[in-house]
Amino acid sequence: MRVQTDCNVLELTQLASGGWTMTLESHGIAEQITAPGQFLHIRCGQGQLLRRPISICNWSARRDLIRVVFEARGEGTRWLSRRQVGDNLDVLGPLGNGFAMEENGRYLLVGGGIGVPPLLGCAVQGSRNCTAVLGFRSAGHAMLLEEFGQACLGGVRLATDDGSLGHHGFVDTLVRHELEQRQRYDGVLACGPKPMLKSVAVVCREKGVPCQVSMEERMGCGVGACLVCACRNAQSHYVHVCQDGPVFPAEEVDWNE
Ligand SMILES: Cc1cc2nc3c(=O)[nH]c(=O)nc-3n(C[C@H](O)[C@H](O)[C@H](O)COP(=O)(O)OP(=O)(O)OC[C@H]3O[C@@H](n4cnc5c(N)ncnc54)[C@H](O)[C@@H]3O)c2cc1C
Ligand code: FES
Asked: Which pTM was predicted?
């Protein structure tokens, strides 16, 4: 069940990458979360400014806490980054479906840039039996590495576009290596820019490993009522990314849309 409520900002800290980590007292939203990869719709600013979708990075239902990690990209997220501890935010959530995971399943988590945070929830809440492949523009943009290192029993592999940390190049090379060299994975869970998701999906199809991808679309209502996030899937049916997703089996995505 989704909840709309005022959430208290308990912590807001800038990461070395330039992004922000925010912990919210969730007033009942945390206990409604059913899967990692779901998101919150946070009203960013007063007046007409719409809500902004931000993935749940981690949560504790027992302590009523939700953590989000975000980049200040435009007006809305810049406003969010200027909140103070003690401020209230108007939050709707949890929204969307999230990643389908088996408790002891073995997963390869593949994240790119600001797509990395929700995958931490997969490792902490879904299954510890994970290996993470994380890609960033450069070493300076890398985030949450220590936490992935603690959460993923299979370890963490890194790639950067400029070679300043880990493999010089894109994550799909590391994904291919993992799927060829290592023991069987029950699935690949990916979140990041669409071209990255597309190349990961190609490798998974080649290797016969099920792949789920979390898609980013601009959103309006966040609850399936406005069509802003509607797009055509591989079967040419319209889907709402906010409600039917944001996570889809890779073979259901129309990669040419
Ligand atoms: C399901 C979902 C989960 C997300 N999770 C996170 C997260 O955990 N952390 C995070 O930092 N961001 C996340 N985003 C992206 C975030 O919602 C956008 O960055 C935010 O809405 C931008 O709003 P703004 O007002 O700051 O910027 P705007 O001024 O609206 O836009 C700034 C720039 O970002 C682009 N942009 C805006 N919204 C989106 C979008 N939805 N997808 C792609 N590009 C966009 C615009 O085209 C523009 O170039 C998520 C998006 C979705 C759909
Ligand atoms: S954002 Fe309104 S239908 Fe998805």
From this structure: 0.96
